[in-house]
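Need DUF4209 domain-containing protein's 3D structure for a figure. Predict it.
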Amino acid sequence: MTKPHNDRYDDFEHDDFQDDQFDREVTRIPQHKTQKVLGKTILELAHQYWQDIVEAEHSLLIQSLRQLAQKESYFDVLADELDQPLDAKIANDALNFMHFWSLIQKHEVDAAQFNLLELINTEYFQTEFFNAFDALEITERKAQRRVILQEAFKLYQLECYAGCIPVIYAQLEGLLTDVLIEQGFLKQSQTKLVDVYKIVPGLKGNEIKSLWHKSKIAGELNRYFAELAAYKMDSSSTVTMTRHNMLHGTDVDNFNQERSFILFIWLFSAVSFMSTLRK
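Structure prediction for DUF4209 domain-containing protein:
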């Protein structure tokens, strides 16, 4: 019998392994030390800015995010994170967003009237992004990826979001793959990617086939990967849950500027953290 069409399809549910395998014990790998460089500094400064923000500016921040949530619900997630008591733990992507909010206040003549979605087109956003990217220690395809990412920014500027969004989704996975190869956790074997330390259970020939597998391995390389929204293996984010259907053509409702914006924040968050990783 033909399986009914499911617009809620996601990679995790349909990967080729048993349902309980991600709950099983995995091989534990000692954590690599990181250097206190760009990524950590940005988060610390962003958190301090958030704690010191005046009430009027904080109200504008939350109001701006709530308004954008009308087209992309993930903005409500950011607003909820940034509308907590001062002693609360703030999510990684919300802190990275807060970093850029502080830059808007610094660089824009009339920050209160600034269109938040135009942030991606600013010189200061792109400079920060490529500074982080250039600090990455990856040898595989780095130059080619830089060109692709430059084109993603161009697509955003041209308002070609149906082209921009798949590129960013793909590069989020591709960059993670490159980092895992560079760190020796994945190995390229002809057309296959092999789980070197056999971290993910139940894989035939230890062959990695999905972003979910790579995310599990990344968590063993450094547990902070679990804090990055782009690599969280749960259903809490519509940006993650709609990824498969958008890339495979069954979701045509979310190719918009708001989704592109969130993905660029996720991309910066991921690259900024990855730039701190050293062997």
